[in-house]
Amino acid sequence: MTKKENHDVARDNLRDWRTPLRVDGPAAPTAAVCHLVVGFDRHRASHAALTYAMDLAGRLGAFLHVAHIVDIDDMPVEPDRDDWEQRFADAVESERREACTMLGTLPGNWAYYSREGNPAQLLTTIAEANDALMIIIGTSRGGAMSLLERFLGESVSGALVHHARRPVLLVPT
Q1: What angle do CA 141, 145, 149 make, to 5 degrees?
Q2: Which residue of 81, 111, 120, 159 is surrounded by the most CB atoms within 10 Å?
Q3: Average pLDDT over residues 30-52
Q4: Pairing relation of β-strands 168-171 and 134-138?
Q5: Distance between CA atoms of 71 and 94, rounded to whole angstroms?
Q6: Is the pLDDT of residue 139 over 80?
Q7: Where does the UspA domain lie (predicted)?
Q8: Residue 81 — pLDDT band, cuts 50, 70, 90?
Q9: Nearest to 75 by CA among 59, 60, 91
């Protein structure tokens, strides 16, 4: 196969990152008594939030809904490269593998979601659909980007605190 044919086959085998994905973990021996929703991405604060949410879910006997919202952080830096789509799909898949590996130690029920959209809206939608006790996210990453997001009103924590009808738990790194 030529390099172009290999590239075409790889592109045809890509899971379209735009298509919403749900991965269900193994069923626990007992039914969940409540639900928790946690946001997940590649940042340390997010990993701390997932670790905390897993501990809390275990203590409460909760079903844990883990949501990765595909956003600009997942995009490769060089959009004009031939393998941009593959690298984008690889980044989204890497997030899924990382979360599912962490969730593999959870004895209870869990589901992992990956989809594009507004993070605060999607976390709220999942929480409302499952009557979740709370939404758990990591604290702000800090720096210029976080300041800009807050200034533009695009801070996930700010949007959740002001618009979600569920308690929001911010977990520090």
Answers
A1: 95
A2: 120
A3: 93
A4: parallel
A5: 14
A6: yes
A7: 35-172
A8: low
A9: 91
pLDDT, one tens digit per residue, over 55-76 is 999 999 999 999 998 876 655 5
User: What is the Cα–Cα distance from 165 to 163, expressed in whole angstroms?
Assistant: 7
Helix (H) or strand (E) holding 160: helix 156-163
Kind and range of the H or E element at 162?
helix 156-163
Cα distance between residue 61 and residue 99, in whole Å: 19
The CA distance from 123 to 157, in Å, is 11
103 contacts 24 by C-beta, under 8 angstroms: no
pTM for the model stands at: 0.79
Distances (CA, A) of 45 to 29, 73, 172: 31, 14, 6
* Structure-token pair, residue 87: 């690298």
Give the sheet arrangement for strand 168-171, strand by strand.
Answer: 21-24, 110-116, 62-70, 34-39, 134-138, 168-171
Rounded to 10 degrees, the C-alpha dihedral 156/138/149/151 comes to 90
The answer to whether residues 35 and 132 touch, using CB atoms and an 8 Å cutoff, is yes
Contact of 163 with 124, CB cutoff 8 Å: yes
Distance CA 25, CA 109 (A): 6
106 close to 61: Cβ distance less than 8 angstroms: no
CATH architecture group of domain 3-171: 3-Layer(aba) Sandwich (3.40)
